[in-house]
Design brief:
By secondary structure, the protein is mainly alpha-helical. The chain has two helices and no strands. It has one domain.
Length: about 80
């Protein structure tokens, strides 16, 4: 995929859903099904990475907030 790195999590999930629907509908050649599966896996991998990044950011924010509260209590 050429521009998939720049897609948002929501855009990646929308594309992933589109690929899954096409695979479920059937009526496509084995080669096309393999291409769709490969593209879907790329979308899933990128979405998972973006989700992990967001979770890490949230964890860091929570830790900073907790540290801030702890330092306020000690002061």
């Amino acid at each position: 995929m050429d521009d998939s790195d720049n897609l948002t999590f929501e855009q990646l999930m929308a594309r992933l859903e589109k690929y899954v629907l096409q695979l479920e509908e059937g009526g496509i050649s084995l080669d096309r099904a393999a291409e769709l599966y490969e593209e879907a896996m790329e979308m899933a991998t990128l979405a998972s990475s973006k989700l992990s990044d967001a979770e890490l950011r949230i964890t860091n924010i929570k830790e900073k907030y907790t540290e801030s509260l702890d330092s306020d209590v000690e002061a």
